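so i finally got all the pieces together for this one. its two components total, 379 residues if u count the protein bits. some of the lines might not be protein, just check the labels. i wanna see the whole assembly predicted at once instead of chain by chain like last time, that was a mess tbh
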Amino acid sequence: MNELDIVDRVAGLAPGSQAYLTRHKREKVAAATQFSDEALFDPALPDLALRERLLVALYACALSQATSLSVHYRERLGALDIDAGLLDQVARTALDEVAEPRLRELLRFTHTLITQPVAGDKAALQRLPAAGLSTPAVVALAQLIAYVSYQIRLVAGLRALDALNAMHPHNGLPTVNPSEPV
Amino acid sequence: MTRLIESHGFTNRVLDWDAWLDIVELEHATPEQIAVLEESHPKAKVSDYYLFLVHQPEILRQRSAAFNAIMYAPGGLPRAERELASAVVSRINGCVYCASVHAQRFEQLAKRDDVIEQVFDDPYTAGTTPRERAIVQFSIALTLHGGTVEPEQLLVLREVGLSDDEILDLIHSIAIFAWANRLMLNLGEPEDATQAR
């Protein structure tokens, strides 16, 4: 793969950089990550609007303080016609201010999965069909939140690897600063 | 014979898992769903977890491709250390089912269970060598504070001998269990629920 995929772009990896080359030695993982993104944000996926999915992703990133991915999802939401007030509520994680009942249920489920995954239970899951979601839509929603949890950690890890290589390019050996006397 | 380890509700016993909503019945599955189940896991057709996720076959197909490439690809971080990281992540997230599966895998690969007992007991002090302790500490940090990683945290891994390729494999192994644990914990439960929660 020669062009930059979403994770490369959000992590700020330059083509040919050490971190980029390291990542793409595991090309099967990189490809499956990108294809997961495409499947989860497929506009044709029924029962769970793209707008809802992108708002859930933005909310998950905001809760996780994942700055670069929050920017990414805000950009994707920018291509849709979304009320600026709602975008702001989601980006501020102000769940109680969100007026749409169905969206509030989606975000409530997201909050549990992101901040305290062990706190979820059968009753919490059953609120989703009660809010009008089909079982395939519930699966898509859970996969989406879980995928974003993965994506957040992958991007943060790759950013750090890229920064580490800038500081210590020779795999652990510090760079000699030529301006300092030896 | 494997030694039974039980601590803080975690176990290395074999557990089952039940979905909380309707699964796809195999006799009603489409050819695409059958194909994705076969690609995903040898026992997917009798597993509630896969039969539930296959309601969205293309999403499951890509998730399984990522999971299998991360956990089973040759080279890079030794597979036992990938399993150790996933057991630590599952212990921190409270996923009894995943912790059990990956404790067993670690034991099969490493032919020992000492570090698993430590992880179940107190993950924050676990590790039988400096390298293991560094892997455990990074697994905890990336699980709890996923949005930010400092390069100094990776430098610690280099200092105990991990190459960049191994660091990438470790990041992948931790991140894929951020994914897996959230599904296992929120879509169903281990069959022996009194032990699990």
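Chain A touches chain B through 62 residues (CB under 8 Å).
The CA atoms of residues 43 and 50 of chain A lie 6 Å apart.
anyway lmk what u think
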